Structure prediction request, 311 residues.
Amino acid sequence: MNENEKVHCLIIGSGPAGYTAAIYAARANMKPILYQGLQPGGQLTITTEVENYPGYPEGIMGPQMMIDFEKQAIRMGADIRWGMVTKVDFSKRPFLCEIDEEKWIEADSVIIATGASAKWLGLESEQRLNGHGVSACAVCDGFFFKNQEVAIVGAGDTACEEALYLSKLCTKVHMIVRGSAMRASKVMQDRVLKTPNITVYWNSETVEVLGEHKVDSVKLKNNKTNEETIVPLKAFFVAIGHQPNSSLFAGIIDMDEQGYIITKPNSTKTNIEGVFACGDVQDKIYRQAVSAAGSGCMAALDAERYLGTLE
Prediction:
């Protein structure tokens, strides 16, 4: 039997949090190994221009920004690998992590940076037309539907923000809200309701996204009257929240009811000493690239201090 590979610091995930943790851990001579997971670069790889990350005065494309993060981590000496962690055993030390259901790595410390993923409605047509007019990111894909009619489903602050963003590009935005009220903050609701080219459909559910090879309309049903309406449009955006990518750690790491990993106040420490969490997998409030990067730095510093206690 092959002997397991041993590592001081294993980083799981490769968005701004994971790569920043790798940069700091490598500079601290922790010789980190980072596994990129299913979506190297995380959610930023499905965005277009990022204008709010400090240090990029002209803005930068999300995928390019993640390539820059990765290059910097490699230059510092981090071992960046394609592959995913498929199982973990944190009951003994060193911790055991299975890679691609093939091999095991023994890690003295683990940084979880697995991020979050957009939630979908669960319609067959939504998945079939994903990338052909269906999108979970208005900021990424709204530009492709300039001067056309589009729909957005959702009732929170993110849905309102995206509806307002689309209203600046598109001739008309049909906003589909399941209930008779929005969950969004009052200020965001007011902005939406005052925008002339946004029409809100209250008490409405999406029955189906219609179109053969690309979106051409959406079928809505009113929950109160059961009346169905077909609205012609060119794109359908889903903004109903995010799901933290934490199922791998269920029953092992403490989480809230939504699955976000709980970290101790002012730290990235989890309920298991030596296991840290950073980025969107533990942050449901800010969910920004810059805040994820900041928490990645914190996780590496926390891991470095923890490793210091083992020596």
